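User: Before I run my own analysis I want an independent prediction to cross-check against. Here's the chain; please return only the structure tokens and, at the end, one sentence I can use as a sanity check.
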Amino acid sequence: MRTMMLAGVGLVALGAGFAFGQAAGQGRGSAQSAGQTVILEQAPTDHAIPISKERLEQYVKDMDAKKLSTLRMIEGGKFNVNIRRITSAETALLHPNTIDTWVVLEGSGSMTTGGKIENGKIVGGQSHPLKAGDVEFIPAGLAHGVSGVNGTITWLNIRWDTDWPK
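Assistant: Structure tokens:
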């Protein structure tokens, strides 16, 4: 687990590097209202953001206390770094121009990708086990969803849009 957490922190730093000099503002804050994701920090353009294993663990505790399934640690406009923590299956998703990279920190379930989404479920996709230590790369436009969650499953979700100016 320690190795996976450290690898996850390295990927967070990598994800923050996707800013490519895009200004997204600075500062810390917490914005929460119905249907909105809590955002902890805007992506800086002048310094790195270290996130220790202990800080990640505290974020997860805070999420549990507030019953949050998503915590956006870093918001950069066309990229972001999140913690996702779920206890049951989710409605399948498809992001037309957003790539996801997941680093599973704890828990297990089943990941389904591909196929078509019908009534919130994937039809005709492929499923495989998802467990702590796994890394998932999900290209833009690919249906994906998690089911069969055993207790909770927690992952870092590093996302970036594909519609950057050339």
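Sanity check: The helical segments are 2-16, 53-66.
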